[in-house]
Every structure is written in structure tokens, then in C-alpha cells.
Amino acid sequence: MTTSTDVVESTEAPVAAALRSITLRWVATALVLFPVLVLLGLVMRVAQSDLVPDLDATRFYSVMTLHGVGMVGLWYTAGMASVCFLLSRYVRVSVLANKVGFASTLIGVALLLVSTLIGKFGAGWYFLYPLPIRPLGAWESWATVTFFAAIAVLGVGWTIWSLDVLRAIASRYSLTEALGWGYLRGNVQQEVPPMVLITTVSIIGALVGLVTAVVLLVLYAVEALGGDAANDALLMKNLVFLFGHLLVNITLYLGVAVVYEVLPHYAKRPWKTNGKVALAWNVVLVLVMFAYLHHLYMDFAQLRELQLLGQVTSYLSSVPAAIMSIFGTLALVYRSHLKWSLAPALLFSGVLGWVIGGIGAVIDSTIAVNLLFHNTLWVPAHFHTYFLMGVVLMLLGGVYHICDKASTCERKAGREKLVFWLTAIGGYGFLLMFYIGGAASIPRRYATYTGNISDGQGLALASVFFIVLFLAGLVIYAIETGRRCLGAAKAS
Amino acid sequence: MTQLLALSLFLALSVVCAAAFIAVARSTAAPEDVPYEATAKLRARLFWVVLAVLLVFLGLTIPYTPYPDESAQPDRVVHVRARQFAFDFSDRPFPDDATTDPDQAPLTGIATGDLVEFRVTAMDVTHGFGVYDADGALLAQVQAMPGYVNRLRMQFDTAATYEILCMEYCGAAHHVMRAALDVEKAN
After folding, report:
1. What ipTM was reported for this prediction?
2. In Å, how far from its chain's centre is CA B174?
3. Does B7 contact A369 at a Cβ distance shorter than 8 Å?
């Protein structure tokens, strides 16, 4: 058996300058885009709190769309960029494919800005059929075309990038080997680092999601060009949630891959693939394809067997996560020689955010409960938990680690603590208002709360305070990481 | 009640998990080697505990789906058509021709205790049909999709005016898409 680099060794093994350069560009882009997108979220909560005079509803929903698509896209690409950088210890990823991903993202973002801010396109981030083509005058058809052009550009660029990562992995490991099947068969030819295993699972899932998005776009185009024949609303809904659920979950797995790779560096303990880890991630790959069904519980026309399958797969998909990755994180850190600094603190607390968001998600994936929680504020509550306080913290931790190792800037412990506590208090305070709102039956995606749901205004107002705290922490983080980026850029 | 129970369960489990994470984080103050066997044993136990808890919850909750029980006949059928940005109600099915208005006479005669079946569809985009009580609590909901009829069955315990809210984002006036539903006391 050949042995790959021991994961306890430092992760700053020789990395091509070009890869470092494009990764730093991704980091800089994320550091600019993330606070802007948080600000858009703040604008929405301010509007819902009635703190300022009415924000035009059409504008509110276009901001909501930009916030949603922007966040999902930003963190998928940040996850991919982080993973590509860290993966370069094991395989040779293409910098050109990475640049294609970067260029397509910039073009896609520009098109999204035009579509939403100028064209007022506001169908939401998962553009549920057939709203994009039936907006009842809220936006014009050119805005819809521009939005779909943005999705197409992003989809093509990300598919090329994802395929290259899979190619890079396959050039050293066979696909079955990278999926850890050697461990399952008891026939390990060469060690497969967890990062390779999780990335392989993630990329396969992402490609299924991206192909689904292509099918969706083609069906929209056929309807737009073909005249009378309308698409089947239930089919389109299944497709859009397969795509959306996969993309969001895969982003989370990319964050988990970063945790598997970086946290051992601080804990000074190895985290290696074994039969159980391989089995867990293969089970995840299967279950994640079906868990999206829980988004359609309230579509009673859907086959009842699929509804039940949705609850079963949603429940079971939490088992491998809880047993291997979450317990694994705790076991890795428990009584280790870890010296706490911002990077491991963000990685570790990101896993906690995944746990808490997962609890909220499992509760919501119970059909009997979903009857009362579907499309209430409970939905943004749980997905913001495992996104904002989960994968975002994991990736911020990973990015901080990468920049920290690439630069010689001195760390400022006081500022690091401030970042941690501001994001933790701000983040969880903001989320708690969503959870309370969900339990109080406040519907989500409402520009204003009036009549019997006016309690939502007070909760939105409290959210504003917590978002400002989070944003303050984020700004300090951006300054600290930006300093390191500049230092690293100078060094390279 | 269900909402409050779910929130309480969520908060309790979250606090327990957060406490475990904090305890583990603090344990690094006294580092020592932990035998792999002990970790593996604990993980195996945790696996069975998590699986058992999930299966119990699954077994307890999955029978309570909101999907219609075909063996029971509803006392009253109400046809609902959602459109940007209003709900139409009728005692008769809506015609396929979306431009034709059905009988728009106010819906009356829904009594407490009746098993009411709402046959919900949409004529333009996807909407949601959420039934709220007078205190602003969501009692039940179903999606309203073009080309499909979703059947939601409910029994109202209290005579009151219930509010219907759109539960699926449907466009620029989604947040004002509402209707009222009067339920009378049974004789």
C-alpha cells in the first residue's frame, strides 16, 4: 500500500503560484461580496420591521432574489476554490478550469445584477415555475432572459470547473477508489485522504444538480419558444428542488471537506479514511439524491410513496453526518493539543452550526410538522443555521487558515476573539428570531407583515440589531483576512 | 401547540449539543492521548442511539400525514382557485377555461365539525393555501399548482372567521394575497 501525505503535516505543501493567485482572487471576491449580500439581507429585515418608510414590494423581492442566488453561488464557489487549493496537495487541479469558473462567476454576477437591480427580476433564488415567465407585470421579459442567461453562464462555468476537479482526482485515483470502495472491499491499493473522498462525493452530487438545472432551463426555453404547450408544474418543481437541494447540500459538504483537511492540522491528530468513513459518505451520496422530496410534502398530488421516502431519507441522512463527521470532529478535538485561534474556532463552531441547523431541518422534514412549518420563517431559520453558522463559518475558517499560512502578518488575538463573539452572538440572535417567527406561523418571503401576522415586525426589528453585530464581526474578519491576502500576494 | 412543542424540542436539543461542543472545546486545556478503541466504542453506541431515536420518531410521526383518507367521505367540498393575487371559492368545480368566472356567491354553510375537503388549484403560478385561526396560528396548508388539484381535509372546532394566506411566493403582491373563510356553529 502506498501512503499519501500524512494529514497531520502542514497543509502548505508547495502550491503552484498560479493556483495561489487565483485562490486569493476568489478570497478577495468573497470578502467584498459577502458583506454586500449580508447588507441586502439587512435591507429586507429593515423593510419587514417597518423601521423605514415602505420599500417598494417589487424592489423587495428583487433584492430577495439577488440575496438568495448571490449567497448560494458565492458559497458554492468559495467552497470549490478552498477545496481546489487544499486538494492540490494530493492531485493536480487545472488552474485554467479554475479561471473559467472565476470568469463565468464574474459574468454571471454582472448579469444577475442587471436582471435584479435594473430589471427588477424577483422570482426568488430557485425561480419556481412558472413565476419567471408569469410575473404579472412586475418585471419585463428581458429581465427573465438576463436572469436565465446568468444561470446558464454560471452553470456552464461551474460544470467545466467541477468536471476538471473530478478529472484531477481520477488521474491519481480511480473513481471507485476515490469513493473509498477499496476500504469497503478490504482491498486498499493506496490511501485515500478524506478530502479526496468527500470532494468526489460532492462533485458527483454537484454535477447531477447542474445537469438538472440544464434540463430545467431547456424546458423553460421550449415553453418560451414553443407557444401553447405548458410544462408540468409538478415535474418542474421536482427538478428545481433536486437542483437547489443538491447545490446547497454539496456546498455544505465542501465546507465539511475543508474541516476534515484543516482541523487535524490544529488538533495535531490525523483524520484518516477507513471503512466506516467511506461507507458513511457513500450512503450520503445516495440519500442526498432523494432528501429533496421533503420540499414537496405540501404538494398532495405528488405520489404518497415519494412523500414517505422524503421523510425516511431526510431522517436517515442525518445518521452518517452525526456519527462520522460530527462525532469525528468532537473526537478529533477532545483532549487534543489544539491551541484555539480564529481558524479552528470557526471550523469547530461551523460544525456546531451544521448540527443545530440539522436538528431544525429534521424537525421540519417530519411531514406532520411540515404541515405547520412549510414556508413559514422556520424554513429560512434552519437553512440559515446550517448555511450562515455552518458552511460559511467552516469556509471562513478555511480561508483564514489559507491566508494565515500564506502570509507573515502577525495575528491579533483580541481582534480574533471579537470576530468570533460578534459573529456567534449576532448570528444566533438573528436566527432565533427566525425560529420564533416560524413557531408563531409567520410566513416567509413577505415584504410586509400586517394584520394577524404583524408580530413579525418586532422579530424583524430584533433581527436588525443582531445582523448589525454579525456584520461588525464580518468587517473585522474581512480586514484581518484582507491584510493577510495582501501579505500573501506580496510574498508570491 | 405543535409549533411550540417543536420549538421547545429544537431549543433543548440545540442547547445539549452546544454544551457538548463547549465541553469538548474546553477539554483541550488538559490534553492527553485518547485510546482509539474507547472512541470507536463510544461511536458505535452513539450510532445505535441516534438510529433508534430517529426510527422511534419516524414510527411515531409518519402515520400522521395530512393526505386524504380515501375511506372517509367529506361532508363538504369547497373548490378553491388561487390566482395572482386572490383566492376564488366555489361549491362547483372551476371550468377548465381559466378566463371564465365561476359563481362568486359568498361561500356559506361551513359548520364546525364538518369534514371539509378543499380542492385547491391555481390558474397562473404556484401559490399556497394556508388556513389561519383568529389568533394568527397556522392550522394547515397545501400548495396550489396550475394543472393539479390538491385536496386538503380539515375539521373546524370553533365558529369564527378564518384567514387564508398565500404560503408560496407568487409575485409582487404575494404578501397581500388573503381571503376570509367563515365557519358557523353547527346546529
Report:
1. 0.94
2. 18
3. no
